[in-house]
């Protein structure tokens, strides 16, 4: 048995539904009051919502009274990545920063049928926006020609889409151990300055959080991709602040360094070997060749490192330059060494002793009862005796030069193999 009240309630409900349906189908004829409000002009909607509103206050965050935070979805559209500076450890970005959040106070589905409303720069200043900043920013600027480059769209359900054009210089701590064969990760950290996680939470949007202009070109790097992260941080004094982070993965283009650094230094090292083909009597030629290559190598090495910060660790370029310098210096020393020996009336060795010499029997025969000291002394004499035939005077020096023609290039090729294998394939921390 239904109470009269219930029947009345049910009938009112049915009437309301019919009314709503009718007003949707024939808005102007049957429901003038509702139609008038739904068909308000866009200008009036903005007036009512923002300017004349007694409830909206741009100084208060949207969910200030609620127990949940306002979620701000962030997207970055990269227009260009301009300079990446190793010396000052920073890079500059030219971006559109896009933010999207819901402000329930600005819903207008009851006032207008428009899908969105575009707000003017002067009206934007009357709307609450999150106090976003870049945690690793060194310098930044808005673009204000001819008016501030900002955009704001207001959707029916209170979603606000806010975009602005920015040029920022961001710090990027680089690890240069593998320079110039390195890959750098340069971050951008977006956080709220004043609102803790109670009021604002940042999130990357789902679709293409980092988007790039089609023909994005970097001068010295190739953009490999990006990685996203959450950098929410809690400070003891002020509380927990939401933050999102993206790392641009930049791979250095090694072509420039191959042409400017590696090829010239290889040529200088090869040039220093020319000395081994010159006669031992050509002292001025060999000395000037040696000194010239050493000096050129020194200049090369300081030139290659001039644009780098004075970090205390060893970089790949240091290893390369130091080894090349060592090679040209060694070929200069080789000449000095054999030049001295050639003038001595004594037998000598070039580059250590071949293995077979160690076991050659001495003149006196060996006795097992001898002490170790005696034995090594005997071996030394034996070596000298057997080498005396070859390594003596100028012909011996020429023989040393002939050996150097193979030893030096072989050692350099081995160094190259090790160097490139390690620096190209091994990951450093
Ligand atoms: C807004 O307020 C002004 C002055 O108080 C008034 O003239 C105007 O009609 C109001 N606008 C709307 C859309 O109510
Ligand atoms: C829109 O109108 C409906 C029904 O009249 C009401 O329940 C709702 O709260 C209104 N929404 C806004 C944002 O005023
Ligand atoms: C609000 O409307 C926009 C555009 O129609 C839509 O993309 C978005 O998902 C809506 N948001 C909510 C919370 O309903
Ligand atoms: C980020 O991490 C914090 C805790 O460290 C967590 O509370 C928060 O929900 C995370 N944010 C996102 C967007 O996942």
Explain this structure.
It is a single chain. With 429 residues, this protein is an alpha+beta fold. It folds into two domains: 42-252, Acetylcholine Binding Protein, Chain: A (Distorted Sandwich), CATH 2.70.170.10; 256-345 and 386-425, Methane Monooxygenase Hydroxylase, Chain G, domain 1 (Up-down Bundle), CATH 1.20.58.390. The chain has eleven helices and 14 strands. It has helices spanning 4-25, 27-30, 32-38, 42-51, 121-124, 255-273, 283-304, 316-343, 355-358, 372-387, 393-425, and strands at residues 70-85, 90-102, 116-119, 132-134, 137-142, 150-155, 159-171, 183-192, 200-204, 210-212, 221-230, 233-235, 239-241, 243-252. The strands form three sheets. Strands 1, 2, 3, 5, 6, 7, 9 and 10 form an eight-stranded mixed β-sheet that branches. It has a four-stranded antiparallel β-sheet with strand order 4-8-14-11, with no helix packed on it. A hairpin with a 4-residue loop joins strand 1 and strand 2. Helix 6 runs antiparallel to helix 7, helix 6 runs parallel beside helix 8 (316-343) and helix 8 packs antiparallel against helix 11 (393-425). The longest helix is centred in the C-terminal third of the chain and has 33 residues, at 393-425. It is rod-shaped. The model is unreliable at 14-20, 22-36 and 353-371 (pLDDT under 50). Bound molecules: 2-acetamido-2-deoxy-beta-D-glucopyranose (4 copies). The site of one 2-acetamido-2-deoxy-beta-D-glucopyranose has 4 residues, from loops. It comes from Aplysia californica. InterPro entries: GABAA/Glycine_rcpt, Neur_chan_lig-bd, Neur_chan_lig-bd_sf, Neur_channel, Neuro-gated_channel_TM_sf, Neuro_actylchol_rec, Neurotrans-gated_channel_TM, Neurotransmitter_ion_chnl_CS.
């Amino acid at each position: 048995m239904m109470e009269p009240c219930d029947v009345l309630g049910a009938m009112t409900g049915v009437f309301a539904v019919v009314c709503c349906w009718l007003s949707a189908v024939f808005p102007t004829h049957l429901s003038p009051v509702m139609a008038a409000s739904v068909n308000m002009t866009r200008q009036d909607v903005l007036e009512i919502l923002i300017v004349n509103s007694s409830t909206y206050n741009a100084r208060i965050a949207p969910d200030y009274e609620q127990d949940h935070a306002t979620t701000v979805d962030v997207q970055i559209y990269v227009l260009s990545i301009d300079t990446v500076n190793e010396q000052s450890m920073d890079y500059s970005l030219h971006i559109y920063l896009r933010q999207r959040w819901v402000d329930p106070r600005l819903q207008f589905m009851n006032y207008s049928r428009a899908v969105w409303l575009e707000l003017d720069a002067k009206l934007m200043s009357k709307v609450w926006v999150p106090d976003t900043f870049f945690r690793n920013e060194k310098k930044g600027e808005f673009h204000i020609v001819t008016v501030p480059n900002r955009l704001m769209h207001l959707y029916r359900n209170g979603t606000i889409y806010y975009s602005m054009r920015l040029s920022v210089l961001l710090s990027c701590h680089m690890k240069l151990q593998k320079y110039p064969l390195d890959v750098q990760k340069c971050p951008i950290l977006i956080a709220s300055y004043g609102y803790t996680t109670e009021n604002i939470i940042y999130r990357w949007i789902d679709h293409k959080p980092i988007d790039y202009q089609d023909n994005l070109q970097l001068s010295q790097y190739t953009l490999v991709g990006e990685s996203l992260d959450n950098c929410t941080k809690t400070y003891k004094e002020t509380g927990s602040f939401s933050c999102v982070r993206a790392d641009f993965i930049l791979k250095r283009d090694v072509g420039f360094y191959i042409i400017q650094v590696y090829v010239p230094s290889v040529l200088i090292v090869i040039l220093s070997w020319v000395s081994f083909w010159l006669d031992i009597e050509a002292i001025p030629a060999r000395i000037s060749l040696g000194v010239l290559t050493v000096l050129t190598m020194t200049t090369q090495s300081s030139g290659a490192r001039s644009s780098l910060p004075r970090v205390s660790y060893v970089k790949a370029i240091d290893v390369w330059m130091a080894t090349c310098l060592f090679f040209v210096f060694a070929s200069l020393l080789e000449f000095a060494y054999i030049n001295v020996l050639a003038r001595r009336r004594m037998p000598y060795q070039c580059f250590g002793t071949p293995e077979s010499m160690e076991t050659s029997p001495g003149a006196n025969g060996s006795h097992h009862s001898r002490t170790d000291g005696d034995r090594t002394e005997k071996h030394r004499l034996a070596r000298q005796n057997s080498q005396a035939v070859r390594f003596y005077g100028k012909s011996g020096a020429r023989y040393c030069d002939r050996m150097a023609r193979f030893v030096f290039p072989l050692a350099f090729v081995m160094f190259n193999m090790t160097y490139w294998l390690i620096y190209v394939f091994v990951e450093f921390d």
